[in-house]
Amino acid sequence: MKRDSKLSGVLHVLLHMAEIDAPVTSETLARMMQTNPVVVRRVMAGLRAQGYVRSDKGHGGGWTLARDLESLTLLDIHRAIGAPPLFAIGHRNEAPGCAVEAAVNEALDSRLHQAEALLLSSFGEITLASLSRNFHRRLAERRAATTSGDHHGH
């Protein structure tokens, strides 16, 4: 089953952008996401519409963050990219004539809606600033391991 990695990719790019103190072109972001610049522009347009990023055209132009990382959550970004489905589980038949299948659909729907609500609620509690702090902690740990001679990352 193919997983949708759009949210992960966008979060990755936004955190990189936070580390760069200059506008970043769609071409540079596309290399980071291993995709086409047109795809990047489409995704970033959704973020721009929400006021999360801005773009400047021309020489020296590109994308920049328009909001502080502390004010952005995973939920904000998930919604800005079109709220892709969180789960790949679905019904075998959306309008079953079989009572057994209808019972299965009802049970799945109920539990999936509960799980989705819980997951989205937790997305609202995670800021991009907390992801950035996690990144910086991991980077410091790697540097410390490298300078102490521990090349295994332990």
Automatic annotation (TrEMBL):
InterPro entries: Tscrpt_reg_Rrf2 (IPR000944), WH-like_DNA-bd_sf (IPR036388), WH_DNA-bd_sf (IPR036390). SUPFAM superfamilies: Winged helix' DNA-binding domain. It comes from Jiella pelagia. This is Rrf2 family transcriptional regulator. Coiled coil: none annotated. Signal peptide: none annotated. It holds the Pfam family Rrf2.
